[in-house]
Write the structure tokens for this entry.
Amino acid sequence: MTLASTLPLTVKADPGDISFVPATTALIIIDMQRDFLEEDGFGAALGNQVSVLRDCVVPCVALLAAMREAGITVIHTREGHRSDLQDVHPEKLARCPPGKKIGDTGPMGRILIRGEAGHDFIPELLTVAGEVIIDKPGKGAFYSTDLDLVLRRQAITTLVICGVTTEVCVHSTVREANDRGYRVIVPGDCCGSYFPEFHSMALKMISAQGGIFGYTTSSSALISVLQHTAA
């Protein structure tokens, strides 16, 4: 891994080209967990077709490799709860199907519980030493976590946010980041939803009205500027 560059890079995006400095940028990969992307997890228990999400795995892997090579800060998030369920709102539990609630025993251990097999990242996107893991009890990555503190301590000003699902945990994190003054870039092909129409509209909502929440781009556009700079 090289030290991240302090020179600004510009990537083609919607609603317009956006510049970022690698040294003050972090890649945040949202909830690429077995419970959401594998057949025996929480997503499937809710009746979703989890195979739809896997279209974003390969682009995420490629972007993560490029970001690591460029020395950019990498942060992974996981949605999950304490084993005693004290951090689960009753309303969240009430929306789970009977017998498949958060904390119930499933094929990969207790559903959406920290430390269980289903709570872990998919094999393609495991962390490496030095990368931050944020365990969150809600949808947004800033809610009830120390993410903002971690970012401020590293003087991070730009966030590249991707993962699942586009309209829920990714969108919640994008909105939270925007309210906190971060520049946000979302590579759309590195995000996924159980509902393709939600995915498409969620990306449009981010870049609408001059980039009301941030900028949308592609993994290939980001990788291209990173590799060009490295060369």
The first strand starts at residue 9 and ends at 11. The CA atoms of residues 225 and 231 lie 10 Å apart. The first helix runs from residue 34 to 37. Residues 39-230 form a domain with the Rossmann fold fold (CATH 3.40.50.850).
